[in-house]
Amino acid sequence: MGSPEEVSRVVFDTNTVVSALLFTNGRLAWLRAHWRERGCTPLLSRATAAELDRVLAYPKFQLSASDRIELMGGYLPFCEIVEVRKKCIQLCRNPRDQIFLDLASSGNSDALVTGDRDLLALADATSFRIETPERYRLSIAGT
What we know:
By secondary structure, the chain is α/β, with parallel strands linked by helices. Helices cover 40% and strands 13% of the residues.
């Protein structure tokens, strides 16, 4: 990663971001403070932003348009927007998850944080770490 002052570049999958944003007392609530305090630089692409917006609009969350905007306001300002210019050489068995691999590859990410088994199955096959939120928390605790 480089010098100690260097902040990790991290791709968080949609479920991880949604859990952190929606469940303020949940197991991933700590992530909000982590990115807000610049403990990492979350990476975002057009495709992953659209996916986040789509998931927040699920009827089960019962969020109004203004609720969704407010929630995204707790994440988007801390993100670096990356134009995906190259595909990751690794292909995910679930094509819908490929956007996260491509973003991590194009954005020179240090890590992809996910609970998704299809992505975690590629943990040793990429130039960036693929790890669960719990494992990511342990990895940053040592820095």
